[in-house]
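In the current project phase, the collection of sequences with tokenised folds has grown. A representative record is quoted in full directly below:
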Amino acid sequence: MRAAVLRNTGDEKLEIVDDVEPNPPGPTDVTVKIEATGVCHSDLHAMNGSLPQGAPFVPGHEGAGVITAVGDEVTDLKVGDHVVVAWSPPCGRCNNCVERNQPHLCVMIQFAIAGLPRFKEGDT
């Protein structure tokens, strides 16, 4: 898989890498081959360090693509489904999620993009 990788927080340029391989999905996760994505201002904040984000990482959390793998506990999606990526999952408990069925308006969503890289590159 090809990806634009930010090696270090604060770098001004992304490195195009051809041998990025996503980790297998966890039991409740899916793997999506991104066909199109955007880089928005929150990505730029993560890149310059004003939002917490471990490096290396691949910016672009507003994407669309095709599911290539599903975790063992995933029952409502399958390989080959076309999806859009939610930049932060809804809580499933607040009024907007439960009563209004509008999880895109979840009041509990917090921008939590920090974490370990979820890909491997080459032999690393």
The first strand starts at residue 3 and ends at 5. The chain has a mean pLDDT of 83. The first helix runs from residue 41 to 48.
